[in-house]
Amino acid sequence: MAATTKVVPQRRRSWFALMRSSPRTAIGAIVLVVIVLAAVFAEAISPYPPNQQNLRNRLQPPSAEHLLGTDQFGRDVLSRIIFGGRVSLQVGFIAVGIALAVGGLMGLVAAFYGRWIDSAVSFLVDVLLALPGFLLALAIVAALGPSLVNVMIAVGIANVPQFARITRSAVLQVIEMDFVTAAQAAGSRDQRIMFRHVVPNSLSPVIVQVTLSLAGAILAAAGLSFLGLGAQPPTAEWGSMLNAARPYIRDAHWAVTFPGIAIVVTVLALNMVGDGLRDALDPRRRD
Amino acid sequence: MLVPLTYARPVHWGEHGTKPALIKYIFRRILLLIPILLGVTVIVFGIMFLTPGDAAILMLGENAPQAELEALRERLGLNEPAYVQYGLWLSRAVQLDFGRSIRSGRPVTGEITARLPATIELALLATLLSIVIGVPLGVLSATRPNTAVDHSATVLAFGGLAMPVFWQGLIMILLFALVLDWLPPSGKLGGWQYYVLPTITLGTSAIAAITRMTRATMLETLSQDYVRTARSKGVRERSITYRHALRNAMIPIVTVIGLQFGALLSGAVITETIFSWPGIGRLAIDAIRSKDFPVVQGVVMFFALMYAVVNLLTDILYAYLDPRLKTRYS
Lengths: 287, 330
What we know:
The complex is a heterodimer. By secondary structure, chain A is mainly alpha-helical.
């Protein structure tokens, strides 16, 4: 068994075919690409620096100069949304990365070795699931103190149980397969079997979970920042922008409206791609 | 995952001697809950124990004399090793004693129970709203697949799931309180008007989740053989939808309603903050901001307890609706 085994996708469809068969997924993917490009090239495309204040230009409605208006310090809302996207995506990716690394490893080890390791991991997962994810993240941030890094850690830990569960069940299905038995019979080491044979074949549900968790992580992080526990001023972050503009909502609703729309569009796009991937990768859901 | 069901009517308690089985099942579920909640206490205590900062300084202020600080540390047991502190904390926590609030000096449990009704009220109203809207909308969607009704419901559901509670709350205040002046922007001074905006804000994501789940399970049950049989016997479509299909689709729907309660508790923290609702969610945020850790610990434990009770009730309802689960535990 030299090569990596790949058995599950007998009818794996290409990205292009997936996009063509599901317009919803395609729209989500296109929107997502635009958001990611905007975040990457924020310096190039945003009309103003995100923190440039102009107190004479406070709370101006949308105009040709400031397409989405200005906030309470006269900062350009559009520019802050573009830079805020960078922060939100970063937080989302890092938080999900933490959850994937920790939870994925827990699930893999639990399913592969079974017995007391499985029981211990399952118990830990049950304990973490005894609190709704956002509340767990909230409690962790409360302890670590308010900052963006702590939000990433907290949201990451709060997402660990989902990844542990999904990886565990995916791996449990794969290790029953003949090629794993064959590899064991051939005397392959555990690590080799795990990472060359089991992991590549357990990826589908985990990939779907990554997309859907990204949406949840971005929402949770923005929520924590909105509560003043995440990004601190003057960092442009969607949740903290909303929080800061809140007192001025009556006179300058644009500073609240547009960052919120940015969150909705991003989360919607991620959910649409996640749903599309799930339908495409899960044979039971395939038409 | 949805399992195909072949029965048409839930078996009631007491029929065929199922009552003892159900009680046994409930008892077992409660026993399983104890170690989990103990695990939660370790996390809650651990989080606060690892927090940088000295509780004695937090309580007495930075300029307090050294002798007083030391006396307080001794009294609170802060000089003891971690496991002794945990043991002391746990022995009080199981009696629902979480100490006194650093900020107000009042017992934490009293502060929580005073505000708990407001949170439960809001959560129940939001749950009710999400069932009353979500289930019929999902049924409507499933019985008319790929029509304008179905597409609108899908768009609404996707939107509802993507909308952050905090943004929706602010937009509702802007629209219905500040622009239209129909409803009060915040507070809870009595009168139904104060309930409208917080309930809708909190319930929206649950409406979306329940609509989607109802649609999916109804589509699946409507394609089952017994539905086809009923139809071929000439049973009216209305009766098929509600008596045959919806009843069997209820199990996953009940599960999602239970799961949504967790999301509601999370949402309550933000909703209460936005609408100045005097519940334990807002208490938690105020406590976090002022580093009032006994209150934070108490509220988190109460949230875990409430979540556990609702999950337990969901599981019991689930067992009640699905006789196969009962036989497994009999």
